[in-house]
Amino acid sequence: MPRTVMALMLREMATTYGRSAGGYIWAVLEPVLGVALLSVLFSMALRNPGLGSNFPLFYATGYLPFAMFNDLANKTATSIRFSRPFLAYPSVTFIDALIARVMLNVLTHIAVIAIVFGGIFIIFQLPGPVAMAPVFEALLLVALLGTGVGTLNCYLMTTFPIWERVWQILTRPLFLISGVFFLYDMMPPKAQDLLWYNPLIHCTGLMRRGFYPTYEASYINQGYVVAISLILLLTGLALLERNHKKLLER
């Protein structure tokens, strides 16, 4: 199994990021440009961001976890489709395909996040240190949530192709309601009552807790995120285990 997973990871590295450094450079540039755009736009309208005084740091703590979740969920959802030619071999299972995609994309995003935050701290000469425990916890929750959503969608999108477009439409507001450019604490109570049920807002809040020592984010509930993630993951695995042979025939 480890060799199979590694082979699938190497294949995806070659196909997704190319055989040159250009693909990985773009993997770093994309979030950098996203953070830079948010920083420029909101610095024109606001004197200070929601926390602190550095716009790139504030928006990076919201945008990067969201981007990691979104990419991981989408890549995991297409695991069977991407590795279909190899799943015909008895030694390769759908579990191998899922693990390979999850591991590669999680490691890639962690590396990108480290580079982007390191660059922000160096360029703007920001004081440290950063509380790493909440940061690692936030990344772990994002990885678990993205894997859970992606695994369930792997079954749904392979079984019902129309679900891929429906999912894209349904999740478009996620960028607006996941705490990327606002703080949960600043929202009206009625909005907070609804936003609390979005697991991503707990992840972005936890990430910001690590970078801003005075930010308590008392609304965060890690157990809720874990529960939602595991329910989605186990449901997706059960459906794939029961139907993966039929899915390969599609």
Helix-strand blueprint:
Elements: H1 2-16, H2 22-45, H3 55-77, H4 79-87, H5 94-124, H6 132-159, H7 162-170, H8 174-177, H9 189-195, H10 199-211, H11 222-248
Give structural notes.
This protein is mainly alpha-helical and 250 residues long. It has one domain. It contains eleven helices and no strands. The longest helix is centred in the middle third of the chain and has 31 residues. The protein starts with a helix and ends with a helix. GO terms for molecular function: ABC-type transporter activity. Keywords: Capsule biogenesis/degradation, Cell membrane, Membrane, Polysaccharide transport, Sugar transport, Transmembrane, Transmembrane helix, Transport.
TL;DR?
The chain crosses the membrane at residues 21-45, 57-74, 110-126, 138-163, 169-187, 223-240. The chain is an all-alpha fold and 250 residues long. It is built from eleven helices and no strands.
